[in-house]
Design goal:
Length: about 220
Amino acid sequence: MIRLLSSVMVLGLAHGAYAADVIVDYRDSGFRDAEPSVLPDERVRLVRIMAEEAPKALRMELGTDFVVLGSAAGAFTRADGRERAYLIQEKAPVASDPFPDAAAPVLVVVGDGMKARFFRLPKDVQYQRLVAAADVDRDGRSEVLLESGAYNMGESVTALTVVKLDPATGLATPGQVLRDVFTDSCDGGSGRKARTASTLSLDASSGGLVARRYQLKCR
C-alpha cells in the first residue's frame, strides 16, 4: 500500500512518462528504513542449499557466515516460474564504504521441484538489499531490483539497479541504474539541507523503470 505524505511536493519526472502502478516508494520511511531479513527457516534452508548445491568455488568465497539481504518472488528462470530470489553477500554492507574488498554478491533462486540456481553479480558493488522483483523488460521473466547506497559527511545517497538473470550463463547482469532515488543532506554540516524521495514505476510506453521525485521536509 502506498502511503501518501502531507509534506510531499512533486519535483518532476526523472525520465519518461509516469506510470500509475508504483513498484517502489521511497517516500515511505518504513520501507526505506527496513532492515533486510528472511525468516529463520528460510535462512536454514539457504545454509543447506549453499552447503549441498552451490559450486565449491562459491562456497569457498562466501564461507558459512554469509548474510542474506532480502528476497522477492517472481519468475526468474522461466516465464511461468514460481520462484524466489535471495541476495547473498559475504558480509553486511557499510554505506560509508560502498566498494569494499569482498566476494562478489550472489543471487540464489529457488522454487518448488527445482534445484537452486546461482547467479553471480559483478564484484565492484556490494548491495544494501534486494527490494523488489518485476518484469521490467517484459520478456516474461522477472528482473531483480537491488539497492546500493553511500554515506559521506552527513549526506546519504541511494541508487537502485535493475539486474537481469540469464539462466543459460548463470550471470546476473546490472542494467538500468536509477540514481538518487533517495537523498538526504539534512544532517550535513554545511550547504543546503534537503531530502528527496522517488517512486519507481514501469514505464508504460518504452519499458524500463521511470522515477518520479518528491521533495520531503527534513523534520
